Amino acid sequence: MRAVVFDAIEGQPEVREVPEPSAPPGGVVVRVMATGMCRSDWHAWAGHDEITLPHVPGHELAGVVASLGAGVERWAVGDRVTVPFVCGCGRCDWCRTGQAQVCPEQQQPGFTHWGSFAEYVPLHAADTNLVAIPDPVGFEAAAGLGCRFATAYRALAGRAKVTEGEWVTVIGAGGVGLSAVMIARALGGRVIAVDRNPAALAVAATLGAEHTLLTTAVPDVPAAVADLAGGGSHVTVDAVGSAQTCADAILSLRRRGRHVQVGLLPPVDGHPRVPMARVIGWEIDVLGSHGMAAVDYPEVMALIAAGRLEPQRLIERTIGLSAAAELLPVFDRATVAGMTMIDPRLA
Ligand SMILES: [Zn+2]
Ligand SMILES: [Zn+2]
């Protein structure tokens, strides 16, 4: 099969013929029809995750079951499926209680094993992790769910528990941030979107942001949010992951507000400082969010099938494997207003 492979950390990825994977016991092989590229793929390429080389990235995928490993009960060849980027083991207490997103034995395609920038991808514990794609939902919309959209949904609905009329400030209007804007609106929130890219903010406005703040023009984000939201936001999301954005988000909250940290904070320059004095004095809840378990997908799929959420609107472009290999090393610098989708059937 064709796959995007790199042989060294920060080495140039290339499209290469590699052996087709075989289904692990309890797992499946999926023929990839759509797979998103996200900053996490760049982090793996840049050496911020433990991976084995040579490596095939890719963790936001949708496709068709191509073969079954021993013991798979719920799935058949030909089923249209997607999968969370965190795949639980299916056996531990966390998995058995519906919290596979924090499974200690988790597998992540594109990190713990070869991923979906390829024609085929192996997936573990299929009965725990696979999610059926309803007929009205396309492969690209479903692939768009796997990481950023599902993460944003869990962050706002599952962790922050946004309610009607609350102010939600989203810092970062990339894939996860724009997903958060759309989802916060669908939950009845009033959204302030913050970014340094005017084009991304324009998209945020079309997705329901009531206000947008361009950081190059508004240096004091917390003060601006306090003005707009009558003393501060009820909920903030840092969808970027830097000391600055994390602090801006926490300091933009009103007393007893809830902050969800979604953007990865890799310890490249030491772990960033968090304004803990404010967290203590104002009783701020600081919440982590890590993907979404397969058992929580059906409610999101139902909202998509009903047209109330439209992740496909976040897809900016679809490219082939060769273009993906070119794009990965510069993806941290790419200014795209939305998601980049890969179709492995393209060159
Ligand atoms: Zn588990
Ligand atoms: Zn991702």
What does this structure look like?
- This protein is of the alpha/beta class and about 350 residues long.
- It has 2 domains: about 1-145 and about 290-340, Alpha-Beta Complex (Quinone Oxidoreductase, Chain A, domain 1), CATH 3.90.180.10; about 150-290, NAD(P)-binding Rossmann-like Domain (Rossmann fold).
- The protein contains 11 helices and 15 strands.
- The strands form 3 sheets. Strands 3, 4, 5, 6, 7, 14 and 15 form a 7-stranded mixed sheet that branches. The chain has a 6-stranded parallel sheet with strand order 10-9-8-11-12-13, with helices on both faces. A two-stranded antiparallel sheet has the order 1-2.
- Helix 4 crosses helix 5 (about 175-185).
- The protein starts with a strand and ends in a 5-residue tail after the last strand.
What is the secondary structure topology, with strand pairs?
Layout: E1 2-5, E2 14-17, E3 28-37, H1 39-45, E4 60-68, E5 80-82, H2 93-96, E6 120-123, H3 126-129, E7 131-132, H4 139-159, E8 167-171, H5 175-186, E9 190-195, H6 198-206, E10 209-214, H7 221-228, E11 233-238, H8 243-251, E12 253-261, H9 276-281, E13 285-288, H10 297-305, E14 315-319, H11 321-327, E15 339-342
Parallel strand pairs: 8-9, 8-11, 9-10, 11-12, 12-13, 14-15
Antiparallel strand pairs: 1-2, 3-4, 3-6, 3-15, 4-5, 5-7
Helix pairs in contact: 4-5
The structure holds zinc ion (ZN) (2 copies).
